């Protein structure tokens, strides 16, 4: 007899969505061989944060291990820029405990 799986359905969280977007960006950049040199210290023109991806759509929050994805990457005004920041702890992504001075 067939028994349906009764595990509760989990809706995606902001952190898991941010991770999925980060991985998609990383896969695209990796396929193009366009990753910046680790020691290049390429900085985003708007935030001044270190870029994680070649197009700086993902940046590293200063003095933390948090990665921040730009929700509106075409925005050139710092006050209007929105970031979603996540950190990996124990193999799981969760919201970053530190907030950037804008967005989030």
Notes on the protein architecture:
It is a single chain. 18% of the residues lie in helices and 19% in strands. It has one helix at residues 14-32; strands spanning 50-51, 58-60, 67-70, 83-89, 92-95. A five-stranded antiparallel sheet has the order 1-2-3-4-5, covered by helices on one side. The termini are far apart.
Q: What shape does the CA trace take? A: globular
The residue ranges in which pLDDT falls below 50 over 5 or more consecutive positions are: 27-33
Radius of gyration: 16 Å
Main beta sheet? 5 strands, antiparallel
- Kindly report the spatial arrangement of strands forming the biggest sheet: 1-2-3-4-5
Average pLDDT rating: 75
CA(first)-CA(last) distance: 49 Å
Helix content: 10-25%
| H/E element order | HEEEEE
The quaternary organization reads as single chain
Structural class: alpha+beta
* Beta-strand residue fraction: 15-25%
The number of helices is 1
Strand tally is: 5
């Amino acid at each position: 007899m067939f028994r349906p799986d009764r595990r509760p359905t989990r809706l995606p969280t902001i952190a898991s969505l941010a991770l999925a977007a980060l991985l998609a960006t990383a896969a695209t950049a990796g396929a193009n061989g366009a990753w910046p040199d680790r020691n290049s210290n390429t900085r985003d023109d708007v935030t001044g944060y270190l870029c994680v991806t070649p197009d700086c759509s993902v940046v590293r929050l200063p003095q933390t291990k948090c990665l921040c994805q730009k929700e509106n990457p075409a925005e050139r005004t710092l006050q209007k820029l929105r970031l979603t920041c996540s950190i990996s702890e124990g193999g799981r992504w969760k919201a970053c405990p530190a907030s950037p001075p804008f967005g989030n």
